[in-house]
Specification:
CATH architecture: Roll
Number of helices: 4
CATH topology: ph1033 like fold
Helix content: 25-40%
Number of strands: 7
Strand order of the largest sheet: 2-6-5-4-1-7-3
Radius of gyration: 14 Å
Distance between the termini: 31 Å
Strand content: 25-35%
Largest sheet: 7 strands, mixed
CATH class: Alpha Beta
Order of helices and strands: EHEEEEEHHEH
Length: 137
Amino acid sequence: MSTWLYQLSQQYLLPRGFRCQIWEGQRWHWNYSTKRSEAGLMPEPGDTLIFFYAKTDCDEPGIYGWAVVDRAEENMLYFTPTAPTNHLKMDPWWDDNARQLTDDIRGGMPRATLFEVPDGMVVRVRHVIKKWLFKND
């Protein structure tokens, strides 16, 4: 199983549109243009997608949620958003840790749509998202 960072663009979907349209448990499909994978992998059913708005050209950057890939075709992903998307879309994770983590994942090519998250970073991603969610506990 792989984890992928899906970089959203305000040009196609504003953060407020994401908040209104994307709900846990509803199936969606989106295309992607450029994919970055060190191993040349393709998304597969059961993989995780993390939705992200970059700081560039976005007033509300951050991690907005995640989903499970239902199926993948050439340049098209079919997915179902899962918890904690409904929480994250209202309180996106964006701080120095999120900025550094997404920069590390995107490496030297931040303009792609889909980035494979290296195996060593998957645990880090999950840990810091949990930390963000429970920051007031």
